[in-house]
Write a structure and sequence with these properties.
The complex is a heterodimer.
Chain A: E1 4-7, H1 11-23, E2 27-33, H2 40-44, E3 47-52, H3 63-73, E4 77-79, H4 89-97, E5 101-102, H5 107-114, H6 116-125, H7 141-151, E6 155-159, E7 168-171, H8 177-192, E8 197-201, E9 207-215, E10 221-233, E11 236-242, H9 249-265, E12 270-278, E13 284-290, H10 297-304, H11 308-316, E14 333-340, E15 342-343, E16 349-350, E17 353-354, E18 357-359, E19 366-370, E20 377-378, E21 385-393, H12 396-409, E22 411-413, H13 421-427, H14 431-435
Parallel strand pairs in A: 1-2, 1-4, 2-3, 4-5
Antiparallel strand pairs in A: 6-7, 6-8, 9-10, 9-12, 10-11, 11-14, 12-13, 14-21, 15-16, 17-20, 18-22, 19-21
Helix pairs in contact in A: 4-5, 7-8, 12-13
Chain B: H1 24-37, E1 42-47, E2 54-58, E3 106-109, E4 114-117, E5 133-134, E6 139-145, E7 148-153, E8 158-162, E9 170-171, E10 176-182
Antiparallel strand pairs in B: 1-2, 3-10, 4-6, 4-9, 5-8, 6-7, 8-10
Classes of the chains: A alpha+beta, B mainly beta.
Chain lengths: 463, 187
Amino acid sequence: MFAKVLVANRGEIAVRVIRACRELGVRTVAVYSTADASSRAVQLADEAVHIGPAPAKQSYLHIPNVIGAAVKTGVDAIHPGYGFLSEDPYFAAICAEHGITFIGPPPEVMEALGDKATVRGLMGAAGLPLLPGTTTAPASLDEAVAAADEVGFPLLLKASAGGGGRGIAIVRSRGDLPAAFRAVRAQARSLFNDPSVYLERFLEPARHIEVQVMCDDHGGVTHLGERDCSVQRRNQKLLEESPSPAVDAGLRAELGAAAVRGARAVGYRGAGTMEFLLDTENRFWFMEMNCRIQVEHPVTEMVTAIDLVAEQLRVAAGEPLSFTQDDIGIRGHAVECRINAEDPERGFAPTPGVLTAFDAPGGPWVRFDSHCVAGSVVPPHYDSLIAKVIVWAPDRDAALNRMHRALGELRVEGAGLHTTTAFQRELVVHPAFRRGGVTTDFLQTDWREGATGAAPDTAQLTV
Amino acid sequence: MSGVTTPENDAPGTGAAAEGPPTVADLRAEAVLLVAALPVSVRRVRVASGSAVVEVDWAPVDVAAVPVAAVPVMGPAVGGTVPAIVTAAVPSTAVPSTAAPAVARHRVTAPLVGTVYRRPAPGEPPFVDVGDVVEPGRQVAIVEAMKLMNEITTEHGGTVVAIPVEDGEMVEYGQVLVELDPTGNEG
C-alpha cells in the first residue's frame, strides 16, 4: 500500500479520498486553490500545498503545479477524484514520468476511452448492444447528412471528446441538421479542444442505467450492480439509486455480463462505470464508459458494503481486489440526493455565497458526504455540489421515506443561497417517482403541477 | 432526455441560459451585493467588464482569518468559453498581529509551484541579497517547474529586507520569496 497519496481535487470528493486513505493508514496531501485555503480537505489532510489562485485552470487543472506539489511532498500516488484531471491521459502519463502512480486506468486505456465515437466501435466489437450511430466523426456536413439518413431521426450529435453531459444536441429532422452540426462542432471545439462530433439515435423515453465495474491487475474483472440515474435536468443528475426499480435479477445479470465484457475488451483497470440506456421494452444499449470514481458511487457502496475508493487504492498499489464476483450481493436499496447550491426556481442558476447555517441530517443508515460546515464559503469558481445525502433501507419505499425524513433535517442557509433540497423532497414522495417509472425526461415535464400521471408535454431539450 | 452521461465536471453548474459576458451594470449589481454581504468595512471596489472583474479591498481586520469573499458569477463560466472570472482581492497589506511595521512591506510571492533558485546558475552570485536596493522590474529569483525556468521579478522597487527561502527549496503558490521595504514613489 502507498505511504503517501496526493488528492488532486477539492470539495466533497477530496474529503472522501482522504477518509479512505486514513482508514488504510496512508498519509495524505491536499492541494488547494486560494479559494479553498480553509476547506475541509485541507484541514483533514496531513499536508497541504497551495497550488494557485481560484480559477481551476490555474490550480486544480494546472498540471505543473499539481505535479510540483506531488514532488515537493514526495507522494507515491495521486488520486484525481472526478472531473478536473481524472480523465486526462496526458496527466496520467506525466505522473508516470515522475514515478508517481496515477490512481486510475493506464494512460493508453484512458486515451482510448476518451474518444467516444471510437469507444462505440470497441464496445460494439465486444458484443455490447449499440444504438444506431457512427463510430467515427463525420468530417463534413455532407458526411453527417449521409450518416444521419442511415441512423434515423431523432438523433443526437455528441462531442467525441466530450463528457459530463455537455456538447450534446438533439436533431429531430433532416432540416435541423446543418445548423446543429455547426453549432455542436463549435461547442465541442470550445469545450474540449476537439470539434469531432458523432451521431447516435436518440432514444426517448429512456432510463439511464449505469453499472459499476472494478478491475485489478490480477485478472479480477467484476461488476457491483447498477445505478439508476434517470432523474436529471439539463443532463445533470439530481438523484441516483441502487438497485434500479426497472431492473430485475435477470436483467442485472445481463447488464453485469455486458459491463464485464466491455471492461475486459478495453483492458480496464480500477473503478469504472459502464453507462447504458434502457428503453421501454427493457432492452439496454451501450452509451459510454467513464474511467473515474463517480459522484454517485456511495449508493453502490451502501448496497454492496464495498468501499470503492479503498479498492481503487488497493488496485493502484498492485494488490488484488478484496472480493470476488461471487462475494458481491445487492442488499436493500440506497438513494442519493445531490445537494447543489442552485436555485430550482431560476433554472437552477448557481448561488454561491457563505453558509450561515449548515445542519447535517443523521440517524440510522443516513450517510452525509460533504466538505461544508456552517461558515464555509461556497465559491463561484467550481461546481455547485455542496453535499450528498445518501440513505439505505431494506426496500425502496423505506429508503425514499428515509430520504424524505433526512432531507427534512438538512438545513442550509446563506444570503442569496438556495439549494435543490425542497425540490428533491417533493420528488421522493411524488407518485410517479414512487411507482418507479420515471425516465430521463421526467424533470422536463410539469411533474410538480400534476401528480395525476398525465402525459408529459413534448420536451424541448436545452443543451 | 436520453443520451446523457455522468456529470461530474469541474466547471460551475450550467446555471441560467447563456447570457453572454457580464456588463458593467451586472458587475456593479454583484459588487453591491458582495459589499452588503461582507462583514468588514470596504475600502475600495473596482469593477471591470472585459474578462469581468470585481475587486474589493477592505481594511485588514484580523490576520488570523483573511476572508476570500465569494462573488456570484454571471453567465456560464465553462472551460473553453471566455470565463467570467470574478475574484475578490485579499487586503494588499496584511498586518501582523504583533507590532506592525511603520511601512507595509512588499512581498514577492511564487506564482507557481516549483523549485526556487536564488541565482541564475550554480556558482554565480544571487540575483539579490538582503540590503540591496532594487528598481521595479528587477529579477529576484527563478522558480523552476517541470524543467521550465520562470523569471520572478519584483513589481515594486525598494530595499530587500528578507529572503525567507533557501536556494533549491520547493515552494508552493503564494509562498513569499523576497520581502522589500518599498521606496517612496510607488502607488
